[in-house]
Design goal:
This protein is an alpha/beta fold. 33% of the residues lie in helices and 21% in strands. The strands form 2 sheets. An 8-stranded mixed barrel has the order 3-5-7-8-9-10-11-12. A two-stranded antiparallel ribbon has the order 1-2.
């Protein structure tokens, strides 16, 4: 036997080894600026905080409410706008507001009265009916006189004047049922009808009433009356007394420029939380300093 190739048979060629392809260098992707990304994150977080904030919604609601109120009051005096919660129009010139009540309003929740507020309007004071003539005591007076101050309401008591009865004895009766204290409003007298008595006779009895109150308390009482009754029967006679005048549904109190008044009962149809009946609504003609000066010392 022989080894190797047969004679004449060409030898197989060994193929040349292929050179491996050169490896590509890895080039990492360029990262975006981290500062740019952080700014967007902060902006997004801030936007979400505003969107989810109760203050944001409060602002939106307040803006919407103000806009709607403006639309609703187009054509009306902008300084005498509607306060929906009180269900009346209120002149915006005044900052101290109050009510006056009697048994007509029934049992009152004075804490709810004090807590009620719309924008800057809230109830600071209340005049409370105590007596009438020489024999009638308001059945809710003692309760109102006791509970209203507990809720933080500044109170004053008033007497409904009857011109046919003695002014002095009406004052005595009023004083028997009301004891004022430091911080109260002065006593008030409601004079709004003649009851068949001549105006001069009414003024005579009213003068006796006022003198008796002032002699016992050393404080001039407040005189309440409707604007027409005041102009016809009282104007010019009791100008040195504090005046409380009723004149309803008007943007301003229509009295002479020389009339010095302290309280204006501008509505008799207010809706007040804690009271189950419509209520008279009043404004004080002055700031907190003037109001404080008026109180019993």
């Amino acid at each position: 036997m022989t080894t190797g190739n047969k004679k004449g048979t060409p030898a197989k060629k060994t193929p040349a080894a292929k050179k491996p392809a050169p490896k590509r260098k890895y080039q990492p992707k360029k990262k975006k600026s981290s500062a740019f990304t952080t700014k967007w994150k902060v902006a997004l977080a801030g936007f979400l905080l505003i969107l989810l904030s109760p203050f944001y919604y409060g602002y939106v609601i307040k803006t919407f409410t103000s806009t709607w109120r403006w639309i609703r009051d187009i054509g009306h005096d902008p300084h005498y706008r509607t306060y929906k919660s009180f269900n009346i129009r209120i002149p915006d010139k005044y900052t101290i507001h109050g009510i006056d009540v009697s048994s007509y309003q029934g049992k009152i929740d004075w804490h709810r009265v004090k807590a009620m507020r719309e924008d800057e309007v809230h109830i600071t004071f209340a005049f409370i009916k105590a007596t009438e003539g020489v024999v009638l005591v308001d059945p809710y007076f003692q309760r109102n006189w006791r509970e209203a101050p507990k809720a933080g309401i500044i109170c004053g008591a008033y007497h409904y004047f009857r011109p046919k009865a003695s002014g002095k004895w009406q004052a005595v009766f009023f004083l028997q049922n009301v004891k004022t204290e430091k911080g109260d409003l002065p006593m008030a007298v409601d004079v709004e009808e003649l009851n068949g008595v001549a105006p001069a006779k009414m003024r005579e009895e009213l003068k006796s009433f006022l003198k008796q109150i002032e002699a016992k308390t050393k404080i001039k009482p407040v005189i309440y009356s409707g604007v027409k009754f005041y102009q016809d029967n009282l104007e010019g006679y009791f100008d040195d007394y504090t005046l409380w005048i009723a004149h309803y549904y008007q943007p301003k109190l229509d009295v002479a420029k020389t009339t010095i008044w302290a309280f204006w009962q501008h509505s008799d149809k207010a809706k007040v939380n804690g009271i189950n009946h419509i209520t008279d609504f009043d404004a004080f003609n002055g700031d907190s300093v003037a109001f404080t000066k008026l109180l019993v010392k």
